[in-house]
Amino acid sequence: LAAIWHTVDSSPPLYELRRTAWQVRPGRRSARFPLRVAFTPEAPRYFHGAYQLCERLNIEVTAAPQADVLIHWRNATEWGDPPPDLDGRAINARVHDISKRHVNDLHGRVCGYDLEPEPDATEFVAKSDRNATHDGRVVARRSGEAGVVTQRLIDNRLDAHLVTDFRVVVFDGRIVLCAVRYRPVTNRFLGQGFSLLAVLAHPDACFSPPEQAQLAAMCEAVGADWAELDVLRDRGSGRLYVVDVNPTPGAPIPSLSQEEA
């Protein structure tokens, strides 16, 4: 049933129905945005940023041959070979692997340090290697489970009860959206609905110019022209750690105020 709904939920007829419903609301855009967009080999769902941008800007979603903009889109951790209809126009055409292991490996090359635990560490984070599982947990020893990665426990606490992280959206090498998220320590690894508060912030208020270049370089290393990053700052060292690079961003960022969302 879930697989059937996933297919229906991302289908062009349902997108058109939602787009029309959005446009007829008072004050919404009525004229078509002069752009046609295609997604391949899959289509985004209603909670994805790409879907909502097309819906709210009144953009036509069409087949690849008729599109002005082509977006490589897969709901997967390993994207594999690009589909035959993908060409040089495509956004995210070079993405092929967003697993935690691959991102950690790229982190070491780009930043000069990675998420490997210190040799004398007594606490670790164990999490699935797959995307969007939100199953991280603090453990006392390295995990030997298949499909599970063990990373350093980054101290992103504000105090004994709260942790903070950054949700950063990068497009074409530039940070276009940045939010600071606050959540209880007990919910630090849970999904996006478990934040107490999220506040939009200017990138310059959160990251130095070299750090912003570092985040853009992580996207470039993954092959992502458009991606959402989960970023943590270690309280002791002050270093940034990119723990996730997601080329299929959701929207809006959870726990924003109604005005900011």
Protein topology:
Elements: H1 2-9, H2 12-23, E1 36-41, H3 49-56, E2 60-61, E3 69-73, H4 100-111, E4 124-128, E5 137-139, E6 148-152, E7 162-171, E8 174-184, E9 197-200, H5 203-206, H6 209-222, E10 226-233, E11 240-246
Parallel strand pairs: 1-2, 1-3
Antiparallel strand pairs: 4-5, 4-6, 7-8, 7-10, 8-9, 10-11
List keywords for this structure.
five-stranded antiparallel beta sheet; 261 residues; single chain; 25% strand; three-stranded parallel beta sheet; 6 helices; alpha+beta
Instruction: Report the structural category.
Output: alpha+beta
Widest β-sheet, arrangement of strands: 9-8-7-10-11
- Overall, the morphology is globular
Main beta sheet, described? 5 strands, antiparallel
Unreliable parts: none
Overall mean pLDDT stands at 87
First and last CA, distance:
31 Å
Proportion of beta-strand residues? 25-35%
Tell me the Rg in angstroms.
19 Å
Order of helices and strands: HHEHEEHEEEEEEHHEE
Q: Compute the number of strand runs.
A: 11
Q: How many DSSP helices? A: 6
Polypeptide structure, described:
The chain has 261 residues and is α+β, with helices and mostly antiparallel strands. 22% of the residues lie in helices and 25% in strands. The strands form three sheets. A five-stranded antiparallel sheet has the order 9-8-7-10-11. Helix 2 (12-23) packs across helix 3 and helix 4 packs across helix 6. The mean pLDDT is 87.
